[in-house]
Amino acid sequence: MVTHICRYLMVFFLFQCALVNGTARAGEFKAYVGEIPPLIYLNDAGLARGAVVDVVVEAMEMAGIPLDQDSDIASISWARAIEDVEYTPRTMIFCMARTEQREDRFKWVGPVAEMNVGLVAMKHSSVSISDKDDVRKYRIGVIRSSGPVDILESEYGVLKENLTQVASDELQFRMLKAGRVDLITQADIAAPVLIREMGMPSGAYEMVHVLQHLYLYVAFNKQTDDELLEKVREAIGELRSSEDGAPSRYDLLLRKHAPEEPLPYRAK
After folding, report:
1. Which CATH number fits domain 115-214: 3.30.70.260, 3.40.190.10, 2.70.98.50, 3.60.10.10?
2. Cis amide leading into 247 (omega within 30)
3. What is the SS3 assignment for 230?
4. Which residues, if any, are the signal sequence (predicted)?
5. How confident is the model at residue 38 (pLDDT cuts 50, 70, 90)?
6. Helix (H) and strand (E) counts for the chain?
7. pLDDT band at residue 220, thresholds of 50, 70 and 90?
8. What is the pTM for the complete model shown?
């Protein structure tokens, strides 16, 4: 425990020295986020908050490159954010699934979170899925350029014409409720928060099939310095580590932001 505390204090001391020397300034990086409550969500002022936001902000500070939580982190369309980070130096995006299609387009740090991503249906629907062939029979609502799009197309062979791509989670749920799609893609930990915020009945939806247990990362523009990335990796490792069975800093942040239970699964 003493060793753990000393390492943390040493990193913090080096960060303070960087501040004094003027080498660490907010605004050096621009970060984009996608909403995955309670990991990442927007407050009433439209500012990014959540367990992973806190972790990444603290890790960047420990690495000597502070992010201003209010001015350096933005939520724009996911497709536009991915494109901006791919082509613009000193940019980053989180949380993002590390898929085969994305691997060589970014530099990766993490994982910073994990969750089950799956197919969600109305609770009393007739949807029945026992294998990948069944998935291909249904109309599925997805977030444009999201990880589940890659999974459905590459691993399940779902045709593009069976995917309805939209810009927001709210549109997904409204299309499902209206019967315009049979299924939508959602994360088990995020869906209950979204349902509550939209004022929809919490017991009306259930996960009928898990697509993937997904690990989520911070993706940086490929021109980002490798030495900086290693510092961020070490800082995230510190925040996620625990000793003597005590909760890690990450665990405490997740509990702070995650009051809901994950979305229920349909009984087989």
Report:
1. 3.40.190.10
2. no
3. helix
4. 1-26
5. confident
6. 9, 10
7. very high
8. 0.71
Structure tokens at 96: 């993002």
Is it true that domain 2-113+215-257 has CATH number 3.30.300.30? no
Could you report the per-residue pLDDT of 180-217, keeping only the tens digit for each?
A: 999 999 999 888 888 888 888 878 999 999 998 989 99
Domain ranges of the chain: 2-113+215-257, 115-214
For the beta carbon of residue 21, count every other beta carbon within 10 angstroms: 9
Number of Cβ within 10 Å of residue 23's Cβ equals 11
Pairing between β-strand 48-49 and β-strand 163-166 as defined by DSSP bridges: unpaired
Nearest one of 93, 18, 106, 20 to 63, comparing CA atoms: 18
Residues 15 and 59: their CA atoms lie apart, in Å, by 11
Q: What percent of the chain has pLDDT over 90?
A: 60
